[in-house]
Amino acid sequence: MSDRKLCMIPGPIEFHEDVLTAMSTPATSHVDPLFVPIFGESIEMIREVVVSKVAQPLILSGSGTLGWDQMVNVIEQGDEVLVLNTGYFGENFADCLKTYGAKITQLRAPVGSRPTLDEVTTAVKEKKYKMVTITQVDTSTGVLSDIKTLSLAIKALSPETLVVIDAVCAVGSEEIQFDAWKLDVLITGSQKGLGVPPGLSIVVLSEQAINIYESRKTPVAAYYSNWKKWLPIMKAYEARKPAYFATPAVQLIYALHTSLKQITSQPIEKRWAKHQEVAAKFRKAVKDLGLKQVAVTDDAAANGMTAVWLPEGLVAGQLVGSLAGKGVQIAGGILGDLSPKYFRVGHMGISVMERNHIDKVIKAMTESLAELGYKQ
Amino acid sequence: MSDRKLCMIPGPIEFHEDVLTAMSTPATSHVDPLFVPIFGESIEMIREVVVSKVAQPLILSGSGTLGWDQMVNVIEQGDEVLVLNTGYFGENFADCLKTYGAKITQLRAPVGSRPTLDEVTTAVKEKKYKMVTITQVDTSTGVLSDIKTLSLAIKALSPETLVVIDAVCAVGSEEIQFDAWKLDVLITGSQKGLGVPPGLSIVVLSEQAINIYESRKTPVAAYYSNWKKWLPIMKAYEARKPAYFATPAVQLIYALHTSLKQITSQPIEKRWAKHQEVAAKFRKAVKDLGLKQVAVTDDAAANGMTAVWLPEGLVAGQLVGSLAGKGVQIAGGILGDLSPKYFRVGHMGISVMERNHIDKVIKAMTESLAELGYKQ
User: Fold this and answer.
1) Which of B214, B217, B276, B330 is the most exposed place for a label (fewest CB within 10 A)?
2) Touching A: B residues 245-264, CB under 8 Å
């Protein structure tokens, strides 16, 4: 692994050595008394990280994308859904919901922007939506949505509407207050702010989300994603009892447990603040280099990643390649025709909390841009 | 981890140290040139392990159960499916297929038996089935189905019918010849005969399965399990090009690659033979103890696991607990009311190929039975 680069893409992120050691936990039965509390405590710590007292976390084996799929539990044919679209992931979440029969209305913001509070409240006043989805950080653009303001406004106008947030690139790096912000569903994965290798789909449900699921009129047209299968499993493990539907990813859950122990060992507010501080530092470096971030304002810029427009004449592949040569892995764009025109850097987890990796990225980026002929 | 027991349940199984080391591969981007060939070669080696030249493997992040889910790609509302039921997993596979609109006919064998060739051919002559499913080894009973004979007979009578095998507890421990046996879909997971921690759903598709998927009349009512998303990804990685739909479980795929390298380093026939030899040894020990296996004949007994009836007066929890005290983890039953009446032992992978763990199980089992008051 001598060619390994520092992984500074917006997920998977760098993993703590103890997390990697947990990944290599020797074979352990999924119903072993050693493992049961590991799973149970992980469920409890997820609740803690999203600042909830009562929500129900689900931890499934699968990619983060499987969280979108689980909306099949609360969507019935013809249900109206409002999708706030701030990039590639909003677009694809809408595609997923359509597959399960939702009628989609999209509020598409120009690239780098986000739908305004006015646009959202107007839309919610015009039509009764079963669900509004918001991507907290769209990994394609680095745009941060103001979940608190939007969710509270939506709930004030239409308490029955489910507020669903795609927080894949937000949990562990952005402020989230599940209960106080009246969220109903939060979707995330293991490989970003939670600092665990990819392979876990993590979803958190409000009582209201579970009620709507339980009172649906038509059966859930899904097997693996069906909450009927998973809710009893999660409740059992949290009660420190083994249960079986499908074999959990034991080693990944040991790794999740290790990372969550680290994360919850200090106040979560400190973690948010540190991510905000490092993000501001990176944005300043970008500005000092004469470059422009994709997010149109600092308010709308994520704290766990940044997307940056390339100078005229440079394409993403060149910069990504040059930084790779310096041992730093960053990512190109993923937004259709715009993809070659910008690059993305992740700043989450241990890279931010204890390793100061962003300084290496700034140094390598500055050198690479100069080597590629860029002059301010 | 000093309390860790030797994991001799029918999956997850014991993992090779090199596989565990691969699990702790430091953060690597899913599109990194280091990772792309690891994924591509894993796809190729899966094809090798199931003895196919042309089939299309899919490797997804998820439990083995997600393989059942993927049948949504070839099932349309009202499609007739014949399920050969040899235990809990056949029953649940039927449940999954029903969720996706299939009309199910079940051939249920008495516990420990399997539907006869006559029963199967009669059923296939009576009705045109879109699909026949067979559980190669039902992990609940340890019953081994004769896939070769059944598949060739079904295909001779009805070449259009898809033959789908649940080989979760068979790949890597039982003979499988995907092409020669004219299989269409094979479903497996990482944590049994493949010797990799749980978290990967692995499915192998024939050209005919892909054709039926491509010529379906109604859209696939699934997002995460949709082959439209995954087929281009697998083709790209096999062509050594990165691609993205959902983030793959990078570390698990490194582990899979390591285990597949070990498995394919010798002729696969040797692996089957060794599993047969160790299974026969364990069955003999069971018989010598005066106990009866669940499978009614040795022909119908799996080579990667064995289910054994307990003597009158003993329940599974007692024996499992006693062996746990001796550092050996075995499993109780999972078949409704019969669950406490039998136990299950896995004999797959390194435990069979190089570690001779079955001797430890036999010794501990013999001692435990004596301690629990069992006399022959």
Assistant:
1) B217
2) 245-252
Q: Find out whether B304 and B348 touch, Cβ atoms under 8 Å.
A: yes
For the domain made up of B17-263, give the CATH fold. Answer: Aspartate Aminotransferase; domain 2 (3.40.640)
Which residues on neighbouring strands pair with residue A143, listed in sequence order?
A138, A301
Residues 142-161 (A) with a CB less than 8 A from some CB of B: none
CATH superfamily of A6-13+267-371: Aspartate Aminotransferase, domain 1 (3.90.1150.10)
The residues of chain B that CATH labels 3.90.1150.10 are: 6-13+267-371
Q: Is B21 on the interface with A (CB under 8 A)?
A: yes
Chain B CB contacts of A199 under 8 Å are: 61, 199, 249, 251-252
Which residue of chain B comes nearest to A198, CA vs CA? B249
- The CA-atom distances, in angstroms, between B295 and each of B111, B138, B201, B303, B306 are 8, 10, 27, 11, 8
| Distance from C-alpha of A190 to C-alpha of B288, rounded to nearest angstrom | 49
- Taking one residue from A and the other from B, the number of pairs with CB-CB distance under 8 angstroms is 198
- A333 inside 8 A of chain B by CB: no
Cβ-based contacts of A34 with chain B (< 8 Å): 1, 3-4
Query: How do beta strands B103-108 and B80-85 pair?
Result: parallel
For B249, the token pair is 């479980």
Q: What is the ipTM of this complex?
A: 0.97
Which residues in chain A have Cβ-Cβ distances shorter than 8 Å to B15?
A: 26-27
Cα gap B91→A81, rounded to integer Å: 36
> Is the CB of residue B197 less than 8 Å away from at least one CB of chain A?
yes
- B274-300: buried (b, 16+ CB within 10 Å) or exposed (e) per residue? bbbebbebbbebbeebebebbbbeeeb
Closest C-alpha among A364, A324, A326, A330 to residue A344: A330
User: Which of B61, B72, B133 has the most A C-beta neighbours within 10 Å, making it the best mutation to test the interface with A?
Assistant: B61
Contacts of A248 in chain B (CB under 8 A): 63, 198
Residue pair A244/B63 in contact (Cβ under 8 Å)? The answer is: no
Type of residue found at A291: L
Q: Model confidence over B319-369: pLDDT tens digits?
A: 999 999 999 999 999 999 999 999 999 999 999 999 999 999 999 999 999
CB contact under 8 A, B100 and A252: no
pLDDT tens across the length of chain A (376 residues)? 457 899 999 999 999 999 999 999 999 999 999 999 999 999 999 999 999 999 999 999 999 999 999 999 999 999 999 999 999 999 999 999 999 999 999 999 999 999 999 999 999 999 999 999 999 999 999 999 999 999 999 999 999 999 999 999 999 999 999 999 999 999 999 999 999 999 999 999 999 999 999 999 999 999 999 999 999 999 999 999 999 999 999 999 999 999 999 999 999 999 999 999 999 999 999 999 999 999 999 999 999 999 999 999 999 999 999 999 999 999 999 999 999 999 999 999 999 999 999 999 999 999 999 999 998 8
Which segments of chain A belong to CATH 3.40.640.10? 17-263
**Contact list, B25 vs chain A (CB under 8 Å):** 1, 20
Write the DSSP string, A78-94: T-EEEEEE-SHHHHHHH
**Best interface-test mutation with B: which of A2, A13, A15, A23 has the largest number of B CBs within 10 A?**
A23
Instruction: Report strand pairing: B185-189 vs B200-205.
Output: antiparallel
